Amino acid sequence: MHERIDQDSAGVYFLSVEEFESRRPPQAATPVESAAPEGARMSHSRKEVEEAWRHFVEVGDSGDWNAWADLHSEDGVWVEHHLGTVRGREAIRELILEVMKPVPMMEFPVAWHVIEGDRVVYYPWQVFPDPNGKGEEFRFGCVTILEYAGKGLWSYQEDLYNPKEGEAVVQRWLAAGGKLAT
Predict the structure, then answer these.
(1) Any idea where the domains of the chain sit in the sequence?
(2) pLDDT band per the 50, 70, 90 thresholds, residue 118
């Protein structure tokens, strides 16, 4: 099962420094990296990281969650603060297929992104289509942090959003006539 994070009564999540550090992605040891001083990181080119990120977003937008899971390294870590921490590509696949099954209609337009070394931080809106076609917005924000592992794969993903806001959006969408997939 997925490990959980401590949550206070206001819905705020807290991590100890030790827990935060334990969630950092493992550093792959290639011959070049293993010769580097301890703690040093090799960085991929900005072009490679940006192209891999754009592909990651495109695959997520396609709704092919098996292909999306394949973009995580075999030992990848996904910290999903509402659902817990998932370790390993196949566990990531299992969870994303479960989570997205009832909401294949969701869209994830990106408001902005920042790339620093192998890290990408971006803001994908979590959007449900207007069931009445009147232009009403049903969305909530999210910040996603990714660590690039090379070869088109991501070793770490962390999604930060307010689950209470997400739940309120879903409830409002359902009340307006939105339907979950069965």
Answers:
(1) 44-126+141-161
(2) very high
Q: Are 145 and 119 in contact (CB under 8 A)?
A: yes
> Which residues does 73 contact at the CB level (< 8 Å), separation at least 6?
89, 149, 153, 154, 155
| Interacting residues of 91 by C-beta distance below 8 A, sequence separation 6+ | 2
User: Global pTM?
Assistant: 0.77
Give strand ranges (E) for 22-180.
72-80, 84-87, 110-116, 119-124, 126-128, 138-140, 143-150, 153-160
Neighbouring CB atoms inside 10 A of 76's CB total 24
3-state secondary structure of 51: helix
Say whether pLDDT at 40 is over 90. Answer: no
The topology under which CATH files domain 44-126+141-161 is Nuclear Transport Factor 2; Chain: A, (3.10.450)
Q: What is the pLDDT of residues 89-98, one digit of tens each?
A: 999 999 999 9
What are the φ and ψ backbone dihedral angles of 76, each rounded to 5 degrees? Answer: -60, 155
